[in-house]
Amino acid sequence: MTKQDDPDRLPLRDELNTSNTIPLVEEELRLEKRSVVTGKVRVRTVVDVVDEMAQASLEEETVEVTRVPVDRMVDEAPAVRTEDGVTIVPIVEEVLVVEKRLVLKEELHIRRHVKTEQVEVPVQLRKQRAIVERLAADEDPPVQE
């Protein structure tokens, strides 16, 4: 029995190199995509005009000025003041006596009057909405002019 005939013996490295080679096969996957038209959509916008009444409150303010004579001697000019919703603006002048003194000549009494009025004005409001239409894949949309 030779060394090569012994079933329990492992083959030598040189003997392995001379054995038959088995080619390995590998599969590859190639994935491709393509676009397929399955339908079409047409979107258009339409503007609707709606007439509505716009409502608002308008205020008008007027001022009434009343001159009130005072003719009183004062040591210094009084400050502007407000009493019961009336703004009082003192008016002074210097007069020559033997000495110089301030004389309160008059006051301006200013009253505010507020008038509120409800008004209605017609206005046009534009509202836009979208219309979506589904078309078959082979159908062309009509030309809009």
Overview of the molecule:
There is one protein chain. The chain is mainly beta and 145 residues long. Helix content is 3%, strand content 59%. It has a four-stranded antiparallel sheet, with no helix packed on it. The protein contains one helix and four strands; from the N terminus they run αββββ. It starts with 12 loop residues before the first helix and ends in a 10-residue tail after the last strand.
Summarize the model shown.
With 145 residues, this protein is mainly beta. Helix content is 3%, strand content 59%. The protein is built from one helix and four strands, in the order αββββ.
Number of DSSP strands?
4
Alpha carbon gyration radius:
52 Å
Helix coverage percent of residues?
A: under 10%
Mean pLDDT metric: 82
Broad structural category:
mainly beta
Poorly predicted tracts of residues: none
Largest sheet properties: 4 strands, antiparallel
Order of helices and strands: HEEEE
Shape: elongated
Instruction: Give the strand order of the largest sheet, numbering strands 1, 2, ... along the chain.
Output: 1-4-3-2
Percent of residues in beta strands? over 45%
For the terminal residues, how far apart are their CA atoms? 102 Å
* Alpha plus pi helix count: 1
